[in-house]
Every structure is written in C-alpha cells, then in structure tokens.
Structure prediction request, 396 residues.
Amino acid sequence: MALSRLNLSPVVPASVLTLPHGPVNLPIFMPVATQATLKGLTPEQLEDTGCRLCLNNTYHLGLKPGQDVLAALGGAHRLQGWKHNILTDSGGFQMVSLLKLANITEEGVRFLSPHDGTPMLLTPEHSIGLQNTIGSDIIMQLDDVLVTTSPDKTRMREAMERSVRWLDRCIAAHTSPETQNLFCIIQGGLDIEMRRECTEKMLKRDTPGIAVGGLSGGEAKDDYCKVVSAITPMLPDLKPRYVMGIGYPEDLVVSVALGADMFDCVWPTRTARFGNAITSKGMLNLRNAKHMHDFGPIEEGCGCTCCRSRDEGGLGVTRSFINHNAAKETVAAHLLSIHNVWYQLELMRQVRQSIVQDRFPAFIRQFFADLYPTPAQYPKWAVDALKVVNIDLMDD
Ligand SMILES: *[C@@H]1O[C@H](CO)[C@@H](O)[C@H](O)[C@H]1NC(C)=O
Ligand SMILES: *[C@@H]1O[C@H](CO)[C@@H](O)[C@H](O)[C@H]1NC(C)=O
Ligand SMILES: [Zn+2]
Prediction:
C-alpha cells in the first residue's frame, strides 16, 4: 500500500491511496449496505457510482457464506464479482451492537450464536483469520469499543489499553501483511489526553493505516470535532486517517477540514429505506404526497444512474416514480440507495477537487450556503470547528 499526497498541507488531505485492487482517491466515503436494511447494490451499480473501495461486514460474511465457503472461493472479491477494493471491519462492533448478550473479556467478545444460541468467542486472532480468508484489501483490528458518552473512566481506560493489546495480537495473527493492510483503531472516548496517549501507543505499532473509533455514538458534535482535531496533527503525513461511522454530509466536509480522509456510514442506504434522498439542499422525503406529480429527477444535475436522463444512459427516474413506488419498499429503496451513495461519493470527489485546486474554503462556504437558507442557521459546532482550522464560514 502506498499513499501519495497531492497537496503539501496534510491538514487538508488529498491523496492517492494505492491498494492491491487499484488506486483510490482520498478523501473518500465508503458505502456500506448492512444486510439488515436492504440488499446491496449490484457490483455494476456500485461501480457506476465511482466506488473503488467499499466496506463489507466481517460478521455477516462469517455467518453467510461462512469461512469454509469463502476459503474455497478464494475470498469476497470472487464471491461478489467485485474487482475493486474492499475494507472489512473486525466484526466486533456488529456483535456488540447487534447481540445484546455480548460480553467483552481480555480473551475477546463472548456472544451467543444468533443461529442456535451456543456460546461463541470472537478473539483478535479469529477476527484476523476471518478477514485473511475474506481477502479484503484493508482489514481492521478487533478493538474494545465503548460509547464515547460512557461516564465510566476506569472502563474507558481499560477499553483503550485492551485495544492496544488486541492490536498486538492482531499483528501477530495476520498472515498476509503484504497484500492486506491492517489499520489500528484509536480509542479513548472524549478524553483528549487518553486519545493522545492511545495515538502514541498505536503509532508505535506502525500499521499501514490509522482509524479513529468509537465516535458517532451520540456525543455532541463539538466533542467529536475536538477529538478529531486532537488526533490528526499527531499522525504521519503518509498514512490514511479513517474516522469510523461518519456519514452526514456536513460531518464529512468538516472532518476533511480537520484532517481526516476516510469515512463510512450505513446512513445513506438506511435512510433510503424510509424514502429519503440526500441532496445538496438537504434531505428530501419522496414519500411526501407533494411529489406525486413531481416529474423532475431526484436532484437536478445529479450524475447518478437514476437521475441521469435516458439520453445520457441513465434511468431518468422521476420523483413521482419513486413516490408511486414508495409502498413497494425495495424498488424505491434500491433507486434511492443508488442516488444517495452517488451523492456521498460525488461530494467527496468535489471536496477533493477543490483541495487540489486550492479553493477548499470557498467550496465549504458554498456547500453550507446551499444547505441552509441563511448563515444564521449554520450549526454552531461547524462554524466553531472550521474557525480552528482558519476557515471562516461567515466570510463572503
Ligand atoms: C459489500 O459492500 C457493498 C457496498 O455496500 C455491497 O453492495 C455488497 O452487497 C457487499 N457485499 C456483501 C457480500 O456483503
Ligand atoms: C455475559 O455476562 C453475564 C453476566 O456475567 C452472563 O449472565 C451472560 O450469560 C454472559 N453472556 C455471554 C454470551 O457469555
Ligand atoms: Zn441522483
């Protein structure tokens, strides 16, 4: 894996990350469709959004088709006919969040099988073994995740220190470091000192990439920004910085300004299920009856397969069509997923282009101007966070 920066300032990153399945432009949003919400896009549809790195869940792949089948097939790229890059999570977070009865001990995450209730254990070694079989280009360490809002300082420290010990076990268990890039995950909740301490410990392990974990768990946006701004200046210039679980357009744009360059979130596909389209003017609920006779595309000027006219090789889907199909959940959800994933990827492409062309502050100002009727409505956390990196949202 290699990273080359296109701009000299690592504070606002634009780079090319070269992975085993081809180059990926950063900053990037990685789509993730959870099995629980809806069928993922087909590989062709995903490719058409410009996606060159998607996130798949180790937990789901481990359950179905399972490690034996994956090993026989030669991994997840073959399984789904995807020739670009894949990042897999460790599986731990999904277990802790999906299975109420999961317990964490030094050994690993103990849980009851969702199939038959038998006790099972996910260790750092199992997680890496599964990800090695999946063959993903980027693999994540198993970490001890605690919601940032937890008031239990002792438990927070335990989780942070255990995550470091688990990283060492992951590194030792990893059988293919030359083709699969292991990322560490920085923990420490909202405690800036603990985050810094964890960052120092993690950096000593010299993994190819670095992730910041545990955020987007209901903390105030101010606190989120403080954690990201405290960590990014400590990171080496030539390693990707992935903030996990981030996906609202404003959060993405502000986080890039704070020095992060990889993101993922289930929200774009999840919200599609409720009839919501993400647009540059905010969210649009197409179930609303007012769209029944609305024959425009989901968003004017959008280049996604749905919105593009038939002349341009698109589907020419109208808001009215989605409104009519809202009851048939899968059709509308599928189309909106295509649009929403495109929106997120296109947003990151535009952010990147503006950085390369040295007009990122102007881009951010325009982005917020499109999203809110007046500057008075801009969220204070965003204005404050951007001020810290010398971007004045109120400037015109
Ligand atoms: C992998 O992730 C992509 C993007 O979310 C999705 O379309 C695809 O269905 C996923 N594959 C599996 C096997 O879960
Ligand atoms: C988790 O711990 C609780 C309390 O010690 C116990 O009752 C439960 O069975 C444990 N669950 C698993 C999956 O080990
Ligand atoms: Zn569109």
In short: The pocket of 2-acetamido-2-deoxy-beta-D-glucopyranose (ligand 1) is lined by residues 31-33, 40-41, 46, 54, 56, 60-61, 80 (CB under 6 Å). The CA atoms of residues 188 and 195 lie 5 Å apart.
